[in-house]
Amino acid sequence: MDNLPNCPKCNSEYTYEDGNLFVCPECAHEWNANSVSESNEDELVVKDANGNILKDGDSVTIIKDLKVKGASSALKAGTKVKNIRLVDGDHNIDCKIDGFGAMSLKSEFVKKL
């Protein structure tokens, strides 16, 4: 039997070859047999309201007034947010906003500066 690589997602040893792809039967991950690095495929891609790709550490502007639960006022359109951090989930931006504190935002309500 060939010495096949373990799955890069779940590290399963039960991978098999299907044409030019490796397949993991445990997590259903497929990757190119000729590829050396799989880090690009697992990278989180988050886009702002205009379709620009966001990265950790970017600065963004809020494009519409957002109500904040538990706060007496809303986040106003035009508020600048510095040093964002991308996370997986519905609210895919974590940040700190002056006057509000730690906050999670949806990328559809921001635009990149």
UniProtKB/TrEMBL annotation:
A Pfam family it matches: YjdM
Protein name: Alkylphosphonate utilization protein
Positions of the Protein YjdM N-terminal domain: 4-32
Similarity remark: Belongs to the YjdM family.
Superkingdom assignment: Bacteria
Limits of the Protein YjdM C-terminal domain: 46-112
